Amino acid sequence: MPGTKAAAQGSSKLAMFCTANGPTVSPGAVVVGVEEVGFGAFSPDEALPQLEAARATLIDRAADIRRFLVMLAAIPFAEFVNDCPPGALVVGVDEAGRGPLAGPVVASAVALCKPRPAGLDDSKKLTANKRSTLDLQVRRRCAWGVAVIEPAEIDRRNIFGATMYAMTLAVARVAEAMGRAPDIVLVDGNLTPHGRCAEWQWPARAIVGGDAKEPAISAASIVAKEWRDRLMIAAAREHPHYGWERNKGYGTAEHLDALRRHGPCALHRRSFAPVAQQEMFA
User: Fold this and answer.
1) What is the pLDDT of residue 79?
2) For the chain, what is the domain count?
3) Bridge partners of 147?
4) DSSP states along 170-221
5) Domain region containing 106
6) Rounded CA gap, 240 and 248, in Å?
7) Is residue 106, in this structure, part of any structural domain at all?
8) pLDDT in the model for residue 75
């Protein structure tokens, strides 16, 4: 599409760029604003078969399916960013997956286009079909970035630190895609990564309940949740005991029972008490 400018990292070994002629592959990894991060088991490439099976009817072309999963940042139409006056470029950021016992934490950052997609709201308040539709609309029309932090990194940093880092990466990626730093970043919750993540470098404001109040945060919450859900559905194909296609890694009765019977796998968070207890008594 004319005016497309994007940078993305699909894994620590494969970089993906979206140009006016569509995605192209680079043999090197991309570092977008901060240090390189590898995605290993939760690379979006791993989710491709599940997406093709479950969501193909929502996407027009096979090329879109691959771009949908591999790119971690994009700006389909640059005009709304280029025309945005100084001081007015707002990015919303939110996360999905702080509480689960397994899987990554995912953050998304979004700068809304004009007119913005209709019906934006807290992702938890939307039906699955509505959320999926809005996710596609946001990523096809607005500037966005996504970051995925794997369980091993969550255990190393702790979940709070990993979440702050994911938000930082997501904002760095959308800023790189836009070719311009945001003037303000609106963060869902009561804390921002400012002063809590060394790589954070933008003005920020925390908004409690922001995913239901600020459209840019609503859009980010939708993209983050849909992205993470796709990864967990794909992971369930490799680890079918835990019911992740239903519980998305949260500590439901089904998941806890499977954890007791089968023990944790590589995608469980060892720093979370129910997982640590199972390892202790294994």
Assistant:
1) 82
2) 2
3) 107
4) HHHHHHHHHTS--SEEEEESS--STTTSTT--S-EEEETTHHHH-HHHHHHH
5) 8-236
6) 12
7) yes
8) 83
